[in-house]
Write a structure and sequence with these properties.
Elements (H helix, E strand, L loop, with lengths): L1 E2 L23 H14 L17 H9 L7 H8 L3 H6 L2 H8 L8 E4 L8 E5 L5 E5 L6 E4 H19 L3 H24 L2 H6 L2 E2 H9 L4 H14 L4 H8 E4 L2 E4 L6 E3 H4 L5 H16 L4 H8 L2 E8 L10 E7 L6 E8 L6 H4 L7 H12 L8 E6 L5 E8 L14 H20 L4 H8 L4 H30 L9
Antiparallel strand pairs: 1-13, 2-5, 3-4, 4-6, 7-8, 9-10, 10-11, 11-12, 12-14, 13-14
């Protein structure tokens, strides 16, 4: 690889977007806008979902995405999506974005996640070493209709509830709880001062308080244990699990195709050349960090790197884990460099203002998260195949943890849905017109019921799309690798 030069002093934004004029309306004017939007787009209209006659073939959309991915990993992606309709949904962000483009919208724009399903929320450490709950995946982030995130999150709970065997009534309670909490929190943020909205965050202790009245003592103990376990998931834990000693040097353990050390991928390329270019890449990435964090990163030395398969929807995009060492051989830092391609939203809401998709992800993450990883940055590189690609970087693990969806009871999922709804509202309130959105939503449950209707109908659609993938694999149209 070699790095493509980029200025650290420029924003990286496309020309003409750096100075955006913002209209400063009064709160009353913003409320009026929100209520007026109900006339154009009634809240009940969000409840409808019917595929159009010219709806794109969902399998064809997956095939389209595969053209820019690592060919030998694409069957693994399909294999993971085949596990269940829920895992299919996790990999179907483009399919749903295409569908959402035809649904009603209020006209208010926020920075949105673009892939706001329930497994893209979790816990991680803030720079002040507090355990926070927040959204944690921003590969598709872009300014867009806030409703799209709400609908994707709500549908994910309906689909997960079906996967768990919950009754229709219980699933509807879960979804409505999520949306009702989103609406209630948006009302609170609408009444709050700008700085209070910006500083708002959800600590894990607050999560436990929210859960206390909804789950049993045994479930509370399990949640506490999961939080404690998350605090052990850091670079030292990854160092112990993912590396071994080879002739006195630490090397990442090969576990193909899930983890493949760089020397195995760069067969025929001089090892010293590859290492030198990786060091150059890290130096280039450093320039996108704040000055103090750049100084910290300078104190670590590159040791080794490997390609690592991550997630479901991301499988096939290039993702690297990079081992660095500090003061000695027991002072590791593991970074993850993840490829950032064009957001699945861009064809429907317009191109990103950022020329570098790594920067698009970083900017969106910083805007939506209450606190972000201290090593969050971006870079542009030439790959071994000569293609230019964008990446964003962060720590591989920093007290990261996620909810165990596969074992949730309906009561626990209902409580979890409320927490996710509250988190999404805070993320949207940081960039969108929270007063207008709150006025649009109102204080009744009209919107909640509409989204519950949508979630049920879209879950049916997701099952049909899942069966289309199953049929494509059975017919030989697609190749899937299962069990990994």
């Amino acid at each position: 690889m070699s790095n493509e030069s980029q200025s650290a002093t420029t924003s990286g934004a496309r020309a003409g977007t750096a100075t955006r004029k913002v209209a400063h309306l009064t709160p009353d004017q913003r409320v009026t806008r929100g209520r007026a939007a109900r006339n154009e787009t009634p809240r009940r209209s969000h409840g409808s979902w019917e595929p159009s006659t010219d709806r794109p073939d969902p399998v064809a959309l997956l095939e389209e995405q595969a053209t820019s991915r690592v060919p030998e990993l694409v069957p693994l992606r399909y294999g993971r999506m085949l596990v269940s309709p829920f895992t299919f949904y996790r990999g179907a962000a483009l399919i749903m974005a295409s569908d959402l483009a035809a649904t009603p919208r209020s006209g208010f724009i926020s920075q949105i996640c673009g892939d706001a399903h329930l497994s893209n929320f979790g816990v991680f450490a803030s720079p002040e070493r507090r355990l926070l709950f927040d959204m944690n995946d921003f590969d598709e982030t872009l300014p867009g209709p806030w409703e799209w995130d709400v609908k994707r999150l709500a549908a994910s709970f309906e689909i997960a509830g079906r996967d768990r065997g919950f009754s229709a009534a219980d699933r509807r309670d879960v979804v409505r709880s999520c949306v009702a909490e989103y609406r209630a929190r948006m009302q609170l943020f609408a009444a709050a001062r700008n700085l209070d909205v910006w500083y708002a965050h959800i600590e894990v202790d607050t999560v436990f308080e929210l859960l206390k009245s909804s789950i049993t003592k045994k479930q509370q103990a399990k949640a506490q244990a999961n939080a404690a376990k998350a605090r052990t998931r850091d670079s030292m834990q990854a160092f112990t699990k993912l590396t071994h000693d080879v002739d006195g040097e630490r090397r990442i353990i090969s576990d193909a195709p899930l983890i493949v050390p760089i020397e195995e991928l760069a067969a025929g390329t001089g090892h010293d050349d590859v290492e030198g270019e990786l060091r150059a890449l890290i130096r280039s990435y450093r320039r996108t960090l704040e000055t103090d964090r750049r100084e910290l990163l300078e104190s670590f030395e590159y040791v080794h790197a490997a390609r690592k398969v991550v997630g479901v929807g991301s499988v096939g995009t290039r993702a690297w884990i990079i081992l660095l060492l500090g003061r000695d051989g027991q002072d590791p830092l593991f970074l993850q460099a993840k490829e950032a391609q064009e957001s699945v939203l861009e064809r429907f809401v317009g191109a990103s203002r950022y020329a570098n998709h790594g920067q698009r992800v970083v900017a969106g993450q910083r805007l939506m998260q209450a606190a972000s990883d201290i090593f969050l940055g971006w870079q542009r590189v030439h790959g071994f195949d000569g293609q230019v690609r964008d990446f964003y970087l962060r720590q591989l693990r920093d007290w990261k943890g996620s909810a165990d969806v596969d074992t949730m009871s309906s009561g626990v999922m209902t409580a979890y849905a409320r927490i996710c709804g509250a988190t999404l509202a805070r993320a949207h309130a940081r960039s969108g017109d929270r007063i207008a959105i709150a006025a649009y939503l109102g204080t009744s449950d009209t919107f909640d019921r509409a989204i519950a209707d949508f979630a049920s109908s879209y879950a049916d659609q997701n099952e049909r799309d899942y069966e289309a993938l199953v049929a494509a694999v059975r017919s030989g149209r697609l190749e899937a690798q299962t069990g990994m």
